[in-house]
């Protein structure tokens, strides 16, 4: 076998790099290309025994190049994801990949459900107040319809191909989406973000999609800084860009970090239901006089109601109440801060990289800005958009099982305020009482600034993204799971802003949009199917053979390729044959011969092939007689894979917990929607909107076709029987006053005489008559839920409002 070298001209290589960087959204300047190339060259300048080391030190004169280093990395990537091997590592990686796919899919479902719940919260509030017309009720009802996979129309094959080309362009050239995100309105951004964060770049743990998404963020942030007029307003206003940054933190890696770092700390705090740490003097004063009036029946003249804040703050009793609370609050805040500071290495790469961009862009835009000012902007993202929302509303971030009670909720809000004041320059103008907590800020200022700067210390990903793109172009298929409305909505937004996005007629984006024509209208929710959209590029040639491509575009040799391929096959054989690598140092030729004499036909072929390759490499003077350097590199690769297995198992264990939490949150959101369905059904039936023309299933006299219709016969549902033990186990009974020894004799019968009305009867075994009956209205329960009332008092037991709503919905909604 003859060793050959293919050397592309420097101008072609530079041009190709320039075009590649430009497609990601970076300026195609020679300086940028040189910087990336220099970084890659530095990375490849390592000894033979260093991780990822090149071919230096081998017998012969084959040189280590940037390209051979990159090609070696590809082989290393392939070894880590080797689908032909069935060992513990391969099985652990398969489990991890499946988990990541499930989390990515479930995160998108939760994002959609949360948006629906937010919308319906406001609409149901109007329904409760009887301020919604029937037409609006129908609109809300449509929001609750599930997609039916059997109905609806698919785009034809030609349209699908055009959409596949368009979305490949959008995915691989993030600057288009970056520009679009700046052009859309706040009312349009949520739907676009759903498509971008959870569909276009929906594989949240796949490096290529994550890195492409981050390049989009760089473009968006660059434009935000360029157009900024005031330093103080940067990244703080509620804009599409700030909404986008917040949504990014809700992806799987961000959720996993929050659960790992904050969940235990928050749960230990909310266990203390009665711990009141209010430090606002006005609120403390009001609580104090209310308690005094409750105890004595009256208030003394020197403690009037409605005093101003300064009078409340000057009261000695109020000061005495607040003083120990301040110490305890600062102690708790310090414990939260310590947990966050210790979590630096656990922070998701993407969030750290965005912090790095904020620091870099700030220094470029404001070269005279102090380190404290720069850190306040980084903290504005990391704390204001990421950490603090999870502390203030832990139930929305799946960090706790239920809604925290009143006092812990207020404590968490105060902790978040303290952390935000620490990350930003506090003014205390609106909340002067927070000044009393300023020692916490002063004592931790240098610690937080160091942490925020350390967050920014992460490497860039441009080289690995280039390799990811090579790998993507060599894949047989790249598919996107996308709903029809996501497809059509993105098409409509692109068409609306096409002249800004693609001003020139020959621009690829404009060519795609012109071929597609006008965007179809949104389909009804029940027809909004998910389709599999194959992605391809008509302007990029798929790479059929990575070997040939690297030989054409780089200066690595066939001997380099053979050396790395031999090493790769040897690692495969060692992983596939138990015990073959127990004896050290490794005997590579013996390993090849052992594989060639097994009963497995695949291993036999590989053993024979690698034995021939070792002999050929020796003949080419690439390796010495004992394969010394290759043995060292194979040993190092095996050590790396062994460490990798431990890391994979640890990550999988962590993600199992995250997946369960996300699933539980999904169930909670669905129960919310089911409750809304039940209530809406009741309202529409009572207003005549829920039946077919000419019929009424409502209550009382309703109007049908302009005429009064008589009261229809009601169908009584139930009774349905539930034991005390069953409801207590399911969490419906939160507290019980029934003695332990009598609970086994207690049961509940629940009946629905008319839609939206429930009668709960408490019975004791052996007695015909109910001990207690309670009439519940669905709208009353929903109102309690909206007012964050946790418990429903039934004298003998206290029901959890959310749980009883879910039970009633599950029992009666489908009947």
TrEMBL record:
Highest taxon of the lineage: Eukaryota
Ras-GAP domain ranges (all copies): 208-424
SMART domains: RasGAP (SM00323)
Recorded coiled-coil stretches: 82-109
Key words, A-Z: Coiled coil
PROSITE patterns named in the record: RAS_GTPASE_ACTIV_1, RAS_GTPASE_ACTIV_2
Region: Disordered, residue numbers: 36-67
Gene Ontology terms describing biological process: negative regulation of Ras protein signal transduction
Annotated Pfam families: RasGAP (PF00616), RasGAP_C (PF03836)
Keyword Lyase listed: no
A GO term from the CC aspect: cell cortex
GO molecular function, one term: GTPase activator activity
SUPFAM superfamilies xref list: GTPase activation domain, GAP (SSF48350), RGC domain-like (SSF143885)
Coiled coil listed as a keyword: yes
Protein name: Glyceraldehyde-3-phosphate dehydrogenase 1
Source organism of this protein record: Dissophora globulifera
Protein encoded by which gene: GAP1
């Amino acid at each position: 076998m003859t060793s050959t070298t293919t050397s592309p001209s420097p101008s072609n290589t530079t041009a190709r790099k320039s075009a590649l960087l430009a497609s990601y959204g970076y300026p195609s300047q020679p300086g940028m290309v040189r910087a990336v190339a220099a970084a890659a060259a530095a990375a490849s300048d390592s000894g033979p025994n260093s991780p990822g080391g090149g071919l230096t030190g081998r017998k012969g004169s084959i040189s280590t190049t940037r390209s051979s280093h990159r090609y070696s990395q590809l082989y290393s990537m392939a070894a880590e994801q080797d689908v032909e091997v069935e060992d513990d590592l391969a099985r652990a990686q398969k489990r991890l990949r499946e988990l990541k796919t499930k989390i990515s899919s479930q995160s998108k479902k939760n994002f959609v459900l949360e948006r629906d719940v937010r919308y319906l919260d406001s609409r149901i509030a109007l329904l409760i107040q009887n301020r919604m017309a029937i037409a609006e009720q129908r609109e809300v009802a449509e929001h609750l319809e599930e997609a039916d996979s059997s109905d609806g129309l698919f785009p034809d094959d030609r349209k699908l191909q055009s959409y596949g080309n368009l979305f490949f362009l959008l995915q691989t050239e993030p600057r288009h989406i970056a520009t679009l995100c700046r052009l859309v309105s706040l009312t349009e951004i949520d739907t676009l973000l759903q498509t971008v964060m959870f569909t276009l770049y929906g594989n949240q743990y796949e490096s290529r999609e994550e890195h492409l998404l981050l390049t989009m963020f760089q473009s968006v942030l660059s434009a935000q800084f360029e157009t900024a007029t005031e330093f103080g307003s940067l990244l703080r206003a509620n804009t599409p860009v700030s909404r986008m940054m917040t949504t990014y933190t809700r992806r799987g890696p961000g959720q996993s970090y929050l659960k790992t770092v904050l969940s235990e700390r928050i749960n230990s705090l909310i266990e203390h239901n009665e711990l009141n740490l209010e430090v606002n003097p006005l609120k403390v004063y009001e609580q104090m006089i209310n308690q005094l009036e409750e105890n004595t029946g009256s208030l003394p003249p020197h403690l009037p109601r409605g005093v101003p804040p300064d009078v409340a703050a000057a009261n000695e009793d109020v000061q005495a109440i607040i003083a120990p609370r301040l110490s305890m609050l600062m102690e708790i805040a310090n414990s939260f801060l310590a947990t966050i500071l210790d979590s630096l290495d656990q922070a998701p790469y993407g969030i750290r990289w965005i912090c790095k961009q904020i620091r870099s862009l700030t220094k470029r835009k404001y070269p005279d800005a102090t380190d404290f000012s720069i850190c306040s902007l980084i903290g504005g993202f990391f704390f204001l958009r990421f950490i603090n929302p999870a502390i203030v509303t832990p139930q929305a971030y799946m960090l706790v099982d239920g809604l925290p009670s009143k006092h812990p909720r207020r404590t968490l809000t105060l902790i978040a305020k303290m952390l935000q004041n620490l990350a930003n320059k506090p003014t205390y103008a609106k909340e002067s009482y927070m000044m009393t907590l300023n020692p916490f800020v002063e004592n931790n200022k240098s610690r937080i600034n160091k942490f925020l700067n350390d967050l920014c210390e992460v490497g860039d990903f441009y080289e690995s993204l280039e390799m990811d793109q090579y790998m993507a172009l060599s894949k047989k298929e790249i598919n996107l799971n996308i709903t029809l409305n996501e497809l059509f909505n993105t098409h409509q937004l692109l068409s609306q802003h096409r002249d800004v996005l693609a001003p020139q007629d020959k621009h690829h984006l404009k060519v795609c949009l012109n071929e597609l024509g006008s965007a179809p209208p949104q389909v009804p929710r029940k027809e909004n199917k998910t389709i599999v959209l194959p992605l391809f590029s008509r302007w990029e040639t798929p790479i059929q053979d990575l070997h040939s491509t690297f030989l054409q575009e780089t200066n690595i040799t066939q001997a380099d390729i053979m050396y790395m391929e031999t090493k790769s096959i040897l690692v495969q054989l060692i992983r596939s044959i138990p015990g073959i690598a127990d004896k050290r140092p490794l005997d590579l030729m013996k390993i090849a011969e052992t594989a060639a004499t097994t009963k497995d036909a695949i291993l036999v072929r590989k053993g024979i092939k690698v034995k021939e390759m070792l002999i050929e490499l020796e003949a080419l003077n690439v390796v010495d007689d004992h394969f010394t350097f290759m043995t060292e590199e194979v040993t190092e690769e095996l050590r790396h894979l062994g460490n990798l297995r431990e890391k994979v198992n640890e990550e999988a264990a962590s993600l199992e917990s995250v997946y369960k939490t996300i699933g539980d949150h999904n169930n909670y959101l669905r129960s919310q929607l089911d409750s809304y369905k039940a209530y809406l059904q009741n309202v529409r039936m009572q207003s005549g909107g829920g039946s077919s023309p000419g019929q009424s299933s409502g209550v009382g006299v309703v109007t049908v076709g302009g005429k009064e219709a008589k009261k229809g016969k009601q169908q009584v549902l139930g009774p349905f029987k539930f034991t005390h033990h069953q409801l207590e186990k399911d969490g419906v009974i939160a507290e019980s006053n029934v003695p332990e020894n009598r609970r086994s004799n207690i049961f509940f019968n629940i009946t629905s005489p008319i839609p939206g009305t429930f009668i709960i009867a408490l019975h004791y075994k052996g007695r015909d008559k109910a001990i207690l009956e309670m009439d519940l209205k669905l709208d009353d329960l929903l109102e309690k839920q909206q007012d964050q009332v946790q418990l429903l008092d039934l004298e003998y037991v206290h029901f959890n409002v959310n749980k009883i709503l879910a039970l009633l919905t599950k029992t009666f909604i489908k009947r």
